[in-house]
Fold each of these.
Amino acid sequence: MIGRLWAIAYSTFREAVRDRVLYNLIVFALLIVGAALLVGQISIGIERLVLVNLGLTSISLFGIVIAIFIGIGLVSKEIEKRTLYTVLAARPVRRWEFIIGKFLGLVGTLTVNAFFMSAGFFAALLYLTHRFQRADADLLVAIYFILLQFVLITSLALFFSTFSSPLLSAVFAFSLFVIGTFADDMRGFAKLTEGGTKWVMTGMSYLVPNFSSLNVISQVAHSVPVPGHLVLLNTLYVLAYAVAVNCAAVLVFEKRNLK
Amino acid sequence: MTALVQTRKFHAQVISRAGQKAHLAGMKVGTIAYNHDELTMPAIETFALAKHYNIGFWRKRRKDALKSLTLTVEEGEVFGYLGPNGAGKTTTLRLLMGLVYPSAGSARILGKALDDPAMKAQIGFLPEQPYFYDHLTPKELLTYYAQLSGVPGKDRARKVDASLARVGMSESAGIQMRKFSKGMLQRVGIAQAIVHDPKLIFLDEPMSGLDPVGRREVRDLIQSLHEEGKTIFFSTHILSDAETVCDRVAVLNKGELRGVGVVADLVSEVSGQVEFVWTGAAATAEIAALGGKTHEASETFRTILTQEATDRAIDAIRGAGGKLISVTPVRATLEDYFLSKLGAGDRDSQNMQEVTR
């Protein structure tokens, strides 16, 4: 089982790496970091603040775009092109293994991608500040949270991909990302409402993926440390959410007729 | 091997409607699900296997893709699954491969359930018009599939190379498949179906997209796999291919099984007609009197008459000054069987006549 999961995950990774669009996005992200350097140099006294904000936001957004772009086609494209037939039909591969393998492959791709973008970002930071500070360690926490965002968005894109067309999957996944970015605001709004609206808003605010608590970029840019319990809670939250969404994806995919 | 296959194929039979109930009842109480006089387990068994789809958005209409298919394929057979386009061949294969779920009935492959991973490791499948990850080379693709099929790492490279060599793709093994023609993809498709050395191979239209040389090579490959003792189940609408390589064939039309037969028997049946070939005089009037029609080509005449008219025809041709070259009983072809099973006057069968010619 582990061997098959690894094979599917590696195949997904290899496909993404050979996809020219992926390279373009990385190059573009690096250009953004370069632009951050330029902005940093013309922002007297707040170079680090501008660089951290722009650099980490670029890593996050480009990762999210790649996750949605690739994730929405992970299953639907395989069904449409019928590449899935030779994997599932006459191989001892269970459908859930295919889904989880694809998920791990894309998360792995995004992690490698984020690693290289982060390396570029830290190189830019060193160039600008000449030495690392103690507060820079919190940047790693922010990057870890960005990786957790990738896990969430990948599971969502993959879930939609099991039953919807790539275009609709992209719309659904991106909408949930945008709504999830304002999850904390939704909870605040729910507290201000009464009766049925309060119930609906509270329910929705807990149902949508909470991307807002995974965004600490502004905090670390101002050198405010991230509390340890937030790291633990965010990790547990993302793990639970991703497991639930992946289970839903497997359930949908198990029932599908692959015509 | 041939003798063994001959023995087995006479045991194999399509279970009658009456026998079907008893057969299915046997399944329920967990008794042996196949003929008790069989010593070996059938490679494929389907019991009243059916699939229907509900089509239409507002007012759903039921469309039967496959109607109650009960069929047994023995181990070691080359089994041809024939039918015109839309007959339900691909649906059957997708059901057997677990890609779509049956609406009714059940099936077993190598005695195991359709979702059994142990069984899946022992089967190979070539889908119709295969499409692969085109960013990969055939070697990378086959290595991936061999890994998924559980081929040990130490054997993987050897088996991949051997499979590619077997389909004549060794020289293109390192080229990305996005540059491949349809015929090359078909060859890679066959290679991936045999890379893990399966016992049973399903081929959906394996000759599709191949040139005459390629078709001949695939036929030879099927025969060589057969000689190795593998069971092959392949769907086609090219009857000459089926006639050449199959032990038995089943004919399917509009989702319904119309008949199953042993190819050797079907093509050796005498049709009750005799073909006469002669030169010299046309003897048109004499032949017409016997109910025949004379065809001429390069000063050679030909007609087909009933067996009862043989003596009179010989006398008539000789009497008219003709010189007989041959008098041959006309034997039935697979095409005759196929068309008879499709049903006379059936529009699909008329289309098939054009396809098969």
Amino acid sequence: MNQHKIIFTGPVGAGKTTAIDSISDIPAIKTDADASDMTRQRKKATTVAMDYGVMNLEGGEKIHLYGTPGQERFDFMWDILVTGGIGLVLLVDNSRAAPFKDMAFFLESFSDFIEKTSVAIGVTQMDKSQTPTLEEYYAQLKSFDCPPPVFAVDARKTQDVSILVQSLLFAIDPGVSCE
Amino acid sequence: MDKKPLKIAVYGMDQRSVKTMQLFLKGPCHGEAVIVAPEQADCELIDIDHPQAKDFYDQCLEKHPERTLLALSLEKVALEHTLSLTKPVSRDQFLHVLSDLKAAFPQLKQSIPEAETSRAPQNTEQTSSIPEQPEQPPLKQEADPKHEPDHSAAQHNQAAFIGILNDIDFSDQQQLASAYYQAQDYLLGYLKAVINHAKSSGDVMQMSTSWKTIRIYPQHGLINLEANDKQLRAFAGIPLHQINNNLSFKAIGRPEPDLNDENNQTIEAFIWKLVIWTSRGRYPYKLALDAPVYLKHWPNFTRLLITPHALRIAALLMQGPRSVLELARQLDISPQYVFVFASTCYESGLLAPARRQSDTLIQPVPPPIKRHKGLFKKILNKLHIPVPGESDTHEST
């Protein structure tokens, strides 16, 4: 049976682990370790290998949900992770110092994968930091022929993560519909 | 099956007609609905041919603006907030309306017999026992989170949001062209003008209506209205000329809003909802049906009320300008789904006619058939947006 993946990426503390947990049918498997160096200020623990969750679909198919490690030094794993992926969810922490740089970094890092599939961007922590606004995010995405969806997201809310993933699928294929 | 029938209060019928209706509901309609006292009802049915029908109609709107009205009449009528049933009522016709109504009441979600299959005799006199009334206790109301976006509109509340245009045949071009609204005829138009004034002046505006007072805090991007969404929905669809057009506003300086007041909503989310309930499946008057329109960017769907097919329409429109009719055709959906989406985006400034020459010269191409179509459908079914009351958070482990 085919194995399919949705990849969650973004900087440290953006909510990847929580987002996977929100829609996974199993408690997300975390590979956190005590943070050190650059990540310590953002959160006490960070993902060092990858997070994993799964959505069980009708007919026995599964969608594997993988979260990339938050620290850039693990980026050698990303190519392996995206193989067989059907799309990318990018979470950006709006309270970080330079969220646009973060977004640009991940869009560039996954550009080949995005070219073949699509991306949906969730901006987290907007309640703590209301700027930059979503309008400003779209201004940063001008280079896209078809700008991807960008939503304010609370990664703890299943509904928010669900809408983000749905938008990713519709961005790939607007013709598909649910029952 | 755990059947929870829809509870209907009837007006303008004598005892004999009520009894006949009870038999009709229990027999041919398989108990999908029951007649109950007005205070226990989910919706109301008025015999429009009764001499006092107008009084019943006004009373129903006044007492229970949140309820859907069914108008039973010899001639088809087009009344605001009303689903029309013509006499003699057929089982198919009634089941179709019940299906729409039950979609608006998720607590009653169940399978309704297909109108096209296993047709039962229409003679209601052939059925036997008369049900006691009321048969069921009043429905337990779901907790009504006052202004939390009810994302489930796409799933369960189609009748309430876009289903009132049953008097329009969307396959008829002439009737289709008449399915528009003009914002200035409703609360929407006036409120938008006041909001613009508030934003340009920076002052808090207090708007008075014959109904409620609305405060607009432009610096905080908030609107304060002491009413729940059901009340707002009822008021939004009433043309101003029917409510004395008694509107006014004044600047009240720059007081700080009480940020803990649960009646506060963001201006963006409030206007979005108001447009949905003003449009109700119609399109904005100024928007040409057959001219390409473009979407500036995706609406912030996680913080807005999502109407049926809205994500799909947005996705297709982001691929390039298309007319609203073309969108409906390419997605193979009823035009009113596109109309209500186009209305929300248009009134929010996200959608506009495509002005570039290339937009009109390039014919929109149908979305290519993608791989994973079956898989995507399964994922979307899995991600079915939860209905209100369902938990929307998972405990972190």
